[in-house]
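note to self — DONT lose this again. spent like an hour looking for the file last time. sequence + predicted structure for the chain T wanted, 88 res
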Amino acid sequence: MSTSVLEEVLEQVRSSPHGATSLILYALVNTLEYEAAGCLFKLTKLRDLDARGRRLAYGLMELMAEGGNRGEAWDTAKSRMDELIRQG
């Protein structure tokens, strides 16, 4: 899987930094950085997402499974999300 899911999630956060979908995806991105802690994420939050949001969440999980939750692309996207959420 390419890092295009990061671009899609970033666009979601950019379009609505404090919207429910953005915040849930942002929470997932944050938890995927903590592999030693088991990447704990409350899966029932997926119910709060529409089909597109769930597709993005699943894409993020697949990206993590492929090792894409580290490196330059991940760090850049995560930093930008941090800024957008804070500025909101």
